[in-house]
Amino acid sequence: MAVKRTYDENTVVIFDTTLRDGEQSPGATLSSAEKLEIARQLSRLGVDVIEAGFPAASPDDLKAVQRIAQEVGTEDGPTIAGLARAVEGDIRTAWEGVKDAAHPRIHTFLGTSPSHLRMLRIDEEEGLQRIRKAVTLAKSLCDDVEFSPMDAGRTDMEFLIKACAVAVECGATTLNIPDTVGYVTPKEWAEKIEQLIQETPGAGPGSGVIWSVHCHNDLGMATANTLAAVQSGARQVEVTINGIGERAGNTSMEEVVMALHTRKSAYDVRTNVDTTQFMKTSRMVSNYMGMPVQPNKAIVGANAFAHESGIHQDGVLKDAETFEIMTPESVGLHTSRLVLGKHSGRHALKVRLAELGYNVDGDALNQVFSRFKVLADAKKNVTDADLEALMTDEFHKP
Ligand code: KIV
Ligand code: ZN
């Protein structure tokens, strides 16, 4: 069933950049067909904006963005965005990529930190002029324009405010603040976003401008920084599935969305995401990109809903809430998993044996449990086949 996207002042817009920043992960490239299939799945997941690619990067990227715009960017579907440097050629090519979508967006950016201005061999004044030209051109092509001052995390605050003000004056409707190198701390980021919202002329509360953040995970703080920004008033977050992206990756969508949903009282916002699509989307992205998900990855890792120790297993069997703050069903898993190993207890063993058709209790269970513990000491995980063998041997039962 198609997701129905609705918006109010408490909606956090989910901007997915798996197909753009995510595809910039070392070694992760996708065919056009794979990109299209991922875009369709992202739409089923309910993301609001899909950044489909960087059309000026290559003719193939342009074609993939065009197909996604035509086939996924339907009237009731997500906005389709194309990335462009603040140069005319990129902006026109981005428009060629997205123009067939029912809701197209041009996302243009310019580095604003001292090192980025040095790299571009321009000063602040020239930077402001380039932003003015780029956003004005983008706006002449497309109503929906997003501007990002790249490396905002290390950009002088006074200049950052000027850059954002110029972008808004020229028609930008979303101001996206990137922590391009994953440098800031949650407290610094929350303060920075709050100050930007308060002090940028034309972009304060009630202006209609959406403030957005785009965090990288170099110090493992991308999710924390993104959530801190939401508490300061950001109403768009730029994220990827499984947290893939340049270097240590981007903010992980599943972590941010599940935090917003699970800790609703802490954030008091909503999203349009159908969280039961997370596992399927995560597996698709991992398979197509050839990037395995670490087992202990929050939300979508193989161990995220697995319990090994006896105390935890007993608790979960009696009442799942004891050790689970989200249900496995809420992210698209059928059940949580009890892993039988040396920390496991009688209760989990009894339940697993019953599932295999062996109803054991009392002394019989004690006997099997002692043998199970010896086996578990020798092996990391005791499998169903191990349990079958153990039962056959213990009770000569075929
Ligand atoms: O990390 C970054 O600054 C980016 C921009 C292009 C938004 O990816
Ligand atoms: Zn990025």
From TrEMBL:
Its cofactor is Mn(2+). Coiled coil: none annotated. The keyword Acyltransferase applies. Its EC number is 2.3.3.13. It catalyses: 3-methyl-2-oxobutanoate + acetyl-CoA + H2O = (2S)-2-isopropylmalate + CoA + H(+). GO terms for cellular component: cytoplasm. Homodimer. Catalyzes the condensation of the acetyl group of acetyl-CoA with 3-methyl-2-oxobutanoate (2-ketoisovalerate) to form 3-carboxy-3-hydroxy-4-methylpentanoate (2-isopropylmalate). This is 2-isopropylmalate synthase. The gene is leuA.
